[in-house]
# Entry
Amino acid sequence: MGGHRNSNIHRNIHFVDGRNNEIAGVWQNGALTWSEMAEWMEITFQKPVDSYAPFRCLEPGDPANPLAQHGPAIIMQGNNNQIETGFYVILSPDGAVVNIPINTQDPRPRAVTRTSSSKLDPHIKTFRNRVRERDGRCVITGEKPLDDVDFVRLEAAHIFPLADLDMWKEESWQIQITDDKYVGESGINSIQNKILLRSDVHQLFDTYRLAINPDVSNC
# Structure
């Protein structure tokens, strides 16, 4: 029988539990591997990743009985094969139903605030303009400004979130910054920690609905 499905989120990889309720999912653009998925599941599920395993559902389309019709367990750790789209059932490694509690803790906010251009500090404006000059377009969609000065739909977005400045300092990530024109002392406002995004894509990025794999380039 069909279980609960989250129809409000666009996915082409779906994970269901032994009761056929969808508990997680993602959109595969062609780069996501099982090894990366294991890391994500460590965050999403409140259970050690070695206590469960995904099994590919064998029924075509949305499965009705994934507990009875699935393939062998998939080893995720160290598995750099790309994940095929479709449905997977999460069970214990030996194929039994297992309870998978979801982490309900809200993610740390990426953005502190958004400030209008008219209120920006002159130094921040200079920093923003450097990002515009370097990228020249949204690095995700490729959308360009209407002209050289009209960047109304394009915004400079932090890669490592400004809201996590304390973590940035604790981990001494400033030493990775070679740009000597950044604003402030920490280096978090360097253009090396910024990309140009279309405003709606920026919002998706800030709310964890979109992620960038730094190890893959389609350019």
